[in-house]
Amino acid sequence: GFYANLLLTQTPEHILTQANNKTEILCELKKEHTGVYWYRWSQERQHFEFLVFSNTLGKATYGTNVSRDKFRVHEARSHSSYGLHISHLHPSDTGTYYCSVSQSSQLLLGSGTRLSVVDALPLPPKTTQTPVSKRPVPRITKSKAASKKGPCSPLVWIPLAAGVLLLLLGLVPTAHRLYRLRRRLWLRIHRQ
């Protein structure tokens, strides 16, 4: 929790990437340490898996069945920052990754990085320029749109709702002033 955040900072919070790409998670340490542990929590398998430990000399110790080609720890800025490089990404690599340090016989975890690996990124549709045609394009005016969709057209009720909301918000200070005035009068009457 909070104590761990004083010792280590993990970034970013979320990564959404495509299969076969590579990515990096950073862990910055603020105190003396013997090295950094990396873990993965798989929501699907409900399993906390040890990936790799990298000591201050740069020697890495890998977990069982963890590929050295896939996970690599890169050290930077004189033992204060570690990056976990994950390559050849696959949807099965989806999970929450934690950097961790050992402090007085307990492991302190970073805030976690949620990695989502998908086959294709959900990119917004490309906006394409439509060729300008010589024919007149039929335009729908607000009144036509309202009559086409009936009285509940968004063109009618959205501005109406916004107007009512602004009116109500404008009444709040006035109502508060009236309430304070009434209270003052009531106190004056009852003091006499």
TrEMBL record:
Subcellular location as annotated: Membrane
Single GO MF descriptor: MHC class I protein binding
Top-level taxon: Eukaryota
Record-level GO cellular component terms: cell surface; membrane
Renumbered residue ranges of the record's region Disordered: 126-148
Keywords of the record: Adaptive immunity, Disulfide bond, Glycoprotein, Immunity, Immunoglobulin domain, Membrane, Signal, Transmembrane, Transmembrane helix
Membrane topology recorded in Swiss-Prot or TrEMBL: Single-pass type I membrane protein
Cross-referenced Gene3D superfamilies: Immunoglobulins
Classification via Pfam families: V-set
GO biological process, one term: adaptive immune response
Domain (Ig-like): residue spans on this chain: 12-116
Transmembrane segments: 156-179
Protein name per the record: CD8B protein
Species: Ptilorrhoa leucosticta
Gene that this sequence comes from: Cd8b
